[in-house]
Amino acid sequence: MDESVPPLLPEPVEGLSALAFIAVAVIGLVRAGALLANVFPLGSAGSLLSGGTLPVLNAVVAVEVAAGIFVVVREELTQAVQIRDRWMVEE
After folding, report:
1. CA–CA dist 70, 2 (Å, integer)
2. Where are the domains of the chain?
3. What span, in angstroms and rounded, lies between the C-alpha atoms of 84 and 74?
4. What is the per-residue pLDDT across 78-90, written as a single tens digit (0 to 9) for each?
5. In this structure, which of 12, 40, 61, 78 has its CB flanked by the most CB atoms within 10 Å?
6. What is the pTM of this model?
7. Whole-angstrom Cα distance, residue 75 to residue 80?
8. Cα 24 vs. chain centroid, distance in angstroms?
9. How many CB atoms lie within 10 A of CB 24?
10. Going by C-beta distance under 8 Å and a sequence separation of 6 or more, which residues neighbour residue 87?
11. CA distances from 29 to 2, 22, 26, 32, 49 (A)
12. 15-63, pLDDT tens digit by residue?
């Protein structure tokens, strides 16, 4: 990557969210004997956290996907700018 482009926060966030997904899966394995088992307490019906482990996994996956999309779009834009700059120099 070009040295003029500063490091980006979403890259480590993407990795950490993948690690969080694995951690939730392993917690289920250790505490309940099954990968991705429901180990978080269930809330009352209709509340945000009434689904136990599932809302936690959904939030982790949402962060992972958002960070991944941001990284991909950034890389594409960086390459487009580099190509444009090369064309400007050649003219």
Report:
1. 17
2. 10-90
3. 15
4. 899 888 888 888 7
5. 40
6. 0.77
7. 9
8. 14
9. 19
10. none
11. 42, 10, 5, 6, 21
12. 999 999 999 999 999 999 999 999 888 888 888 778 888 889 999 999 9
